[in-house]
Amino acid sequence: MAQQQTPAGATKTHSSITLYHSPGACSMAAGISLFEAGLDFEVKIVNLKNNEQTLPDFAALNPKKKVPFLVVDSAGLSENVAIQSWIAESWPDTQLLPSDPWNKHRALSYMGWFGSGIHPHITRHFKPTTNGCTHARASKRRSLYAEIKALHR
Predict the structure, then answer these.
(1) Among 20, 39, 85, 132, which is disulfide-ready with 69 (CB 3.0 to 4.6 Å)?
(2) Mean pLDDT, 10 residues at a time, over the chain (153 residues)?
(3) How many CA atoms within 13 Å lie on the side-chain side of 46?
(4) 111 — phi, psi (to 5°)?
(5) What's the CATH code of the domain at 31?
(6) What would the DSSP string read from start to end of 86-134?
(7) Are 79 and 106 in a shared domain?
(8) What is the pLDDT of residue 118?
(9) The model's pTM
(10) Distance of CA 136 to CAs 69, 115, 142, Å?
(11) Residues spanned by the domain of 139
């Protein structure tokens, strides 16, 4: 069980927190935030390579058919920015986001940019191919690795 501090200063207890996650996917960010907040949570693996996100049970739970997906006391929340913001605001003592409003929203701006601007481009390079262009994708992947490596020099 996790106890959340409400804006009015009261404490709310959550009986269950479950993160639907796929190893190597962006859902790792939500998992790290839950871990850093010191919360007890369950992880359910969704194998994207096997298209498990499209299975009827998961699609009924999350019509977006993607990870991360967080279920808290039977209510669902998707998208890293929303999940990580909820964790940071629910457990402010963890200081997962800056307390200063300007810096907090700058951090949210970077999170949104990464989720909507950077991540989709990376996904295209690592997503399993369905059109037989594995050689071309592998070449692009090597090129992307080289560019990322060059940034860290």
Answers:
(1) 20
(2) 55 83 89 93 93 94 95 94 94 92 93 79 61 56 68 61
(3) 26
(4) -60, -45
(5) 3.40.30.10
(6) HHHHHSGGG-SS-SSHHHHHHHHHHHHHIIIIIHHHHHHHHSPPSSS-H
(7) no
(8) 73
(9) 0.73
(10) 31, 25, 10
(11) 101-151
